[in-house]
Amino acid sequence: MSEYQNLMFENQDGIGVITVNRPQALNALNADTMAELDRLVDAIAKDSAVKAVIITGAGDKAFVAGADIAYMQPLAAVDGRAWGKAGQAVFNKIENLPQPVIAAVNGFALGGGCELALACDIRIAADKAKFGQPEVTLGITPGFGGTQRLPRLIGKGRAKELLYTGDMIDAAEAYRLGLVNKVVAPGELMEAARAIALKIMSRGQFAVQMCKAAVNEGLDTDLDTGVAYEAEVFGLCFATADQKEGMAAFLEKRKPAFIGK
Ligand code: CO8
Question: Per the confidence metrics, is the pTM higher than 0.70?
Answer without folding.
Answer: yes
